[in-house]
Amino acid sequence: MSNKGIKVISTNRRARHNYEILDTFEAGMVLQGTEVKSLRLGRANIKDSYATVRGGEVFLYNMHIGKYPFAAYGNHDPLRPRKLLLHREEIKRLTGKVKEKGQTLIPLQVHFKGGKAKVTLALAMGKRKHDKREAIRRREEKREMDRAKRERNKV
Predict the structure, then answer these.
(1) CA-based, 20 to 30 A from 86: which of 25, 34, 112, 121?
(2) How many CA atoms lie within 13 A of 90 on its CB side?
(3) How many CB atoms lie under 10 A from the CB of residue 91?
(4) Which domains are present in the chain?
C-alpha cells in the first residue's frame, strides 16, 4: 500500500507494544460535518479506543474527536460511538474472530484517503508481560548487531 494521497491524522503508537497484530482492515467512518472539520485540523485521539461488532455492524468507541472551534451551534459529542463501514464478508469474518478467546479490534491509525476519513483497524491479541520483554530484548539485539556492522564497515 502506497502512502500517496494519504494524510495521517492520528496513530495509536502503544498498540503495537501492547498487542500482537494478527490482521488489519481499512474501514470508512460515518461522521458528522463538524467531526470531519475537526479531523482536518488534526484534533483526534485514538489511544484508548476499541471497536466491537453489534447487530451485524462495527462501532468504534472512545475515539476522541475534539469539538470544532468555529462552530456556533450544532457541535458534536467528542466521545460518541462511531459506525464503521466494512464489507459484509469482512464483518462476518471479524465476528467469528472476535468471539475467539483474547482477540479484540483496535484502531491503529486514522487518516484521510482520497478526501474520505478512514480508520485502520487491527485484529489483535493482547501481549503478556514476558512477550513484551522478549520483544524489547529482540529489538536491543538487532540494534547491537546493526551497530557492530556499522563499526566493522567503518574500518
Answers:
(1) 34
(2) 16
(3) 18
(4) 6-127 (2.40.280.10)
AA identity, residue 119: V
Average pLDDT of the segment spanning 1-8: 71
Length of the chain: 155
Q: Over 70: is that where the pLDDT of 126 sits? A: yes
Q: DSSP states of 2-18 as a string?
A: --TTEEEEEE-TTHHHH
The per-type count for the chain, helices as H runs and strands as E runs, is: 4, 9
Residues 40-74: b if buried by 16+ CB within 10 A, e if exposed: eeebbbbeebbbebeeeebbbeebebbebeeeeee
**One-letter identity of residue 90:** E
| Cell numbers found for residue 121 | 483497524
Integer angstrom CA distances of residue 105 from 67, 79, 112, 140: 25, 18, 20, 29
Q: Give 3's pLDDT tier (boundaries 50, 70, 90).
A: low
Q: Which three cell numbers stand for residue 98?
A: 472476535
Going by pLDDT thresholds of 50, 70 and 90, the confidence category of residue 75 is: confident
